[in-house]
Design goal:
It is found in: Cell membrane. Choline transporter. Choline/H+ antiporter. Belongs to the CTL (choline transporter-like) family. The protein is mainly α and 685 residues long. Among the domains are: 58-179, no CATH class; 368-412, no CATH class. The protein is 61% helix and 7% strand. The chain has helices at residues 6-29, 33-36, 70-75, 95-101, 106-112, 127-133, 183-263, 274-277, 290-313, 315-334, 341-364, 397-400, 416-419, 421-455, 468-507, 514-548, 552-564, 567-600, 618-656, 669-675; strands at residues 58-61, 82-85, 93-94, 139-140, 143-146, 149-152, 154-157, 160-163, 168-170, 176-178, 368-374, 405-412. The strands form 6 sheets. The chain has a two-stranded antiparallel sheet with strand order 1-2. Strand 5 and strand 6 form a beta hairpin. It is globular.
Length: 685
């Protein structure tokens, strides 16, 4: 062997080094606290150490009525002044009332001014000027902190929405308002609070049932192993039972259609045609027609004939497919370590996802605070323009757009780095896709090399290398990193285009241009098909790389033409394998799920006392079912790779050898018997 696709290997290594450099630069400029901690109208973090807000960990909104919903409060910016406070208000109060009584009730003023701008302590300033300059809120209402933000303390009393047991409050502008004015925000907040309560209960359920979940997943792993072992003996039986079951069901359908057709004979109106009665919204009307049941019977008869003819003409290829499935089970039995290789792929992908996510967060939080004009008036020409909070009150904006505020919008900057953050995010996503596809390609090539060493061993298992999986992994890394990176690169480019198309589709959802939507839909469909085709080609190219050690393009070409020369066998093997593996996943997930259901609902008397007390028994149950399916999928993906590798080896074996002493077949005796060709040269089975 020799190194393949060296140029791509060098580019791949350079890109990885650049990706590391991008992560370092993002780490230097970024600050994830901008995501974790709320930010006030001055761009300062609430609760940040060594600042004036160190003990002020909660964000307070001057006029929460201006905020449309909790989603605006949490994700976007509400068009009102926002300050960091140490605690939320616990009472109703208005600036008008506090100002009027500050001389003989200074405690009320001292309490109220902690929700004013820092340093403001001038109760003599007119109410109009205070509200204009947003020095203080016009009102405060009893609130409680949630997500480090002050939300009204809503509660329901006798079916009536209240705040601190009151249904009305003063808005500080001379009006008495009903608490129902906050209903939209209240409903959203209550839903979020309910979700938090459910989340805590789910967390508690996981905390007391995690070891039982692990036991269930271990049982799923053992069942998956058992299913793969039994496929050696039951693959044919399962497949033929299913096929004859389908034939029997369709046969029953034909008989039932004939019975309905004959039963309607002589009934008035049953001899009418579909054309006579036209379109009817009640489809039961069509079932009263003999013509309908005749059409159903003809269709089912056609399907039945097609299935029977396919079984007659494809019987030999189906037998080959079943023999390859059995051979795959035998190969895994000799190389059991391959069943645990998906753990390596999972860890590599987990590392890629973690690095991408951390880099994306640091890139998103790079930059200096940017302030924009937030105006209540939709026609304000200064809305969403950048501004300077230090000089904002001296400009004409507040006069032309009453109530406008210069508030923090996001983090950005004017430097070269900040200008190209979006490009860096795209690069981050692209390299992430490249690395994930490379990890998958490495796994496929490694497994293919291990199973190919089994097939091309003349005497099985005596001629199988000592450590086939580790040897294959070493060959893939040492010689074929460039080829694997090349295949992963092509797939990553297509996937990135699909991501961009999805983004454009999301942005253009509200557009009325039908042609644009149609064009996007066509492009998405085309690139989806292209991605599926490339995955199929890449998978078989990696198998050929593992067998012959050639570069990616040559391997892909040879694999494609080899499959085209055996296209019927490919189709039959693919469907038979898909069916049996899907059946196995359902059996494993369903079997373990039923067992978990009986256990967590205390229906197994032996373990009734061991069952933990749960808030929602469906939490561990769903976890067990989904986890069992993923465990089975991990094991069966190895099996699918094994069958695909053996199939390509089998096709190569047929084309290169003729069964003579000089060119003996390497296939198993069962495969050779199905082909009905020359006898195998003497060798150990």
């Amino acid at each position: 062997r020799h190194c393949t696709d060296v140029i791509c290997c060098v580019i791949f290594i350079v890109v990885i080094l650049g990706y590391i450099a991008l992560g370092v630069v993002a780490w230097v400029h970024g600050d994830p606290r901008k995501v974790v901690y709320p930010t006030d109208s001055y761009g300062q973090f609430c609760g940040q150490k060594d600042t004036l807000n160190e003990k002020k960990t909660i964000l307070f909104y001057f006029n929460i009525l201006k905020c449309a919903s909790p989603l605006v409060l949490i994700n976007l910016q509400c068009p009102t002044t926002q300050l960091c406070v140490s605690k939320c208000p616990d009472r109703f109060a208005t600036y008008i009332d506090v100002q009027a009584s500050y001389r003989y009730k200074p405690d009320q003023w001292n309490y109220f001014r902690q929700f004013c701008k820092p340093g403001f302590n001038n109760p003599r300033k007119s109410v109009t000027q205070v509200l204009r300059d947003e020095d203080c809120p016009s009102m405060i209402i009893p609130s409680r902190p949630f997500l480090k933000r002050c939300f009204p303390d809503f509660s329901t009393k006798n079916g009536v929405l209240t705040v601190a047991n009151q249904t009305t409050f003063k808005d500080g502008r001379g009006k008495t308002r009903n608490v129902t004015d906050l209903r939209e925000a209240a409903n959203g907040i209550n839903n979020v609070l309910d979700a938090r309560s459910v989340g805590m209960k789910i967390f508690e359920d996981y905390a007391i049932s995690w070891y039982w979940i692990l036991i269930a997943l271990f049982i799923a792993m053992m069942l998956s192993l058992l299913f793969l072992v039994l496929l050696r003996f039951t693959a044919g039986v399962l497949f033929w039972i299913f096929i004859f079951g389908v034939i029997g069901i369709i046969g029953y359908g034909i008989w039932h259609c004939y019975w309905e057709y004959d039963h309607l004979k002589g009934i008035p109106g049953s001899d009418l045609t579909v054309y006579d009665i036209g379109f009817q919204t009640d489809f039961k009307v069509y079932l009263q027609l003999r013509q309908t049941w005749l059409a159903f019977m003809v269709i089912l008869c056609g399907v039945e004939v097609i299935i029977v003819l396919m079984l007659i003409f494809l019987r030999n290829r189906i037998r080959i497919a079943i023999a390859l499935l059995k051979e795959g089970s035998r190969a895994i039995g000799y190389i059991m370590s391959t069943l645990f290789y998906p753990i390596v792929t999972f860890l590599l992908i987990a590392i890629c996802i973690s690095y991408w996510a951390v880099t994306a967060v640091f890139l998103a939080t790079s930059g200096e605070p940017v302030y924009k004009v937030m105006a209540n008036q939709t026609l304000c020409k200064y809305a969403n323009l950048t501004c300077d909070p230090e000089t904002f009150n001296t400009t004409n904006v507040t006069k032309l757009c009453p109530g406008a505020q210069c508030t923090f919008a996001f983090y950005g900057g004017e430097s070269l780095y900040h200008k190209y953050i979006f490009i860096f995010q795209l690069a981050n996503a692209f390299v992430f896709l490249w690395l994930v596809n490379f990890a998958i390609a490495l796994g496929q090539c490694t497994l293919a090399g291990a199973f190919a060493s089994y097939y091309w061993a003349y005497r099985k298992p005596a001629d199988i290398p000592l450590w086939p999986l580790f040897s294959s992994f070493g060959r893939a890394i040492r010689y074929h990193t460039g080829s694997l990176a090349f295949g992963a690169l092509i797939l990553a480019i297509v996937q990135l285009i699909r991501v961009i198309l999805e983004y454009l589709d999301h942005k253009l959802k509200g557009t009325q241009n039908s042609f644009t939507r149609f064009l996007l839909c066509c492009l998405k469909c085309c690139f989806w098909c292209l991605e599926k085709f490339l995955k199929f080609i890449n998978r078989n190219a990696y198998i050929m790389i593992a067998i012959y050690g050639k570069n990616f393009c040559t391997s892909a070409k040879e694999a494609f033409f080899l499959l085209m020369r055996n296209v019927v066998r490919v189709a039959v093997l693919d469907k038979v394998t898909d069916f049996l593996l899907f059946l196995g996943k359902i059996l494993v997930a369903g079997g373990v799920g039923v067992l978990a259901f009986f256990f967590f609902t205390q229906r197994i008397p032996v373990f009734a006392e061991e069952v933990p007390m749960l808030n929602y028994y469906w939490v561990p149950l769903l976890t067990v079912i989904i986890g069992s399916y993923l465990v089975a999928h991990g094991f069966f993906s190895v099996y699918a790779m094994c069958v695909d590798t053996l199939f390509l080896c089998f096709c190569e074996d047929l084309e290169r050898n003729d069964g003579s002493t000089a060119k003996p077949y390497f296939m198993s005796a069962s495969l050779h018997r199905i082909l009905g060709k020359k006898k195998l040269s003497p060798k150990k089975a």
